[in-house]
Amino acid sequence: MQKSPRFKLFVMMALEFFIWGAWLPLIFGYLPSLGFSPAQQAWILNAFPLAAIVGMFFSNQFADRNFAAEKFLAFSHFIGGVAMIGLAFTKAFWPFFGLMLVHCLLYVPTMSIVNSIAFASMKDPQKEFGLVRMGGTIGWILAAWPFVFILVDYDKVHASHPQGIAAWIGAILANPLTGDAAKAGARSTYIVAGIASLLLAAFSFVLPHTPPKRAGNGTEKLAWLEAFKLLKHPFVLVLWLVALADSFVQNAYFNWTGLFLGTARDAGGVGIAGNWIMPVMSVGQIAEILTMFVLGVTLKRLGWRATMIVGVLGHAARFAVYAYFPQHPLGIVAVQLVHGVCYAFFFAAVYIFVDAYFPKDARASAQGLFNVMILGAGALLANSICPYLSQQVFTCGGSVNFHGLFLVPMICSLAAAAALALFFHPPKSAPAA
Description:
By secondary structure, the chain is an all-alpha fold. It has two domains: 1-151 and 186-212, Up-down Bundle (Growth Hormone, Chain: A); 223-433, MFS general substrate transporter like domains (Growth Hormone, Chain: A, Up-down Bundle), CATH 1.20.1250.20. It has helices at residues 6-33, 38-45, 47-66, 69-87, 93-121, 125-144, 147-150, 154-159, 165-174, 179-185, 188-203, 223-229, 234-262, 277-324, 329-334, 338-357, 360-393, 402-423, and strands at residues 395-396, 399-400.
């Protein structure tokens, strides 16, 4: 009897998302510390969404049809891991942007490749994939916790002469890096992410062999053209545009939350120690695991539209707490739980809707269409304007006006929810692509 590869697939997913989760949350504060202008920051931040858009038109199909999946995974993560480690030692704009672009162009296609390996290796994907994909969420959570012990002022720890393991841990937790030192310490996130990438490159050689899928005749060769034909249906167009708005809001959360949490309370922030910012933000991923368990029941009881509206309104609730109650740190930490609702009830619901609603030959095209918005255009929009808004429009005397800043995504979320309520009316039967 052949042994199930489920554990290997779980580890694959955990490492895949550990890489992304290690560097993303703190990059938004790290780039200004290097002296990059808002425009330069936007270029670097947009390497990922640009790679996602390129993936829609080229790299995903090219990789899927010309290479064994596990070999492409190994190659991508080896080169991407080296590029990621290089970022830790780079302070000039063009080399930094070039290394980030190399990493993202190789990393983004692997997000589809790991799914291909998983689906090809499972006997019952509907039953098994949820458990395997949970490894990705756990990997993202685990990526946050090493930095509790990395972003620490070890000079102060040694100076306190702690005796015993408990005293050492207490001294570490009591002496986080602060201010500019904490921002500069974020360079370690690239080393950790790079090492994880190299580990996944090596681990890829023990994954199940997944041969390339050769292209057939007809429209399959230009699947992205088929995807855009779906926009002739009004309900698809509405959902596609709402996905753009919700992706913008989610990426505004990633752009600004780390800065907000780390800014001192007398400057309008929450005043959380630098080594605890990533663990606090990981609370949302913990909630995501729990929310995914009730998503199926919620969809059956509330339906597609109401469930998605709840997911979008979760963003509005979180930014409302940020804007109006920044003086309550425990409330700010607690509202991170909403992230799980935001992701599961909208983004996961969209993917499930596409899989359930569209005929089999149109599903891949439809998923790609929405990925362009969720991973590409929405992030591109947020990364282009968020540095400008936080560093120029809503900054006065060196301090950020977080109240005004957070009203922008809050209002955007409310408008997106209203658009779903008023205009998202899918017919009872699935349309042709």
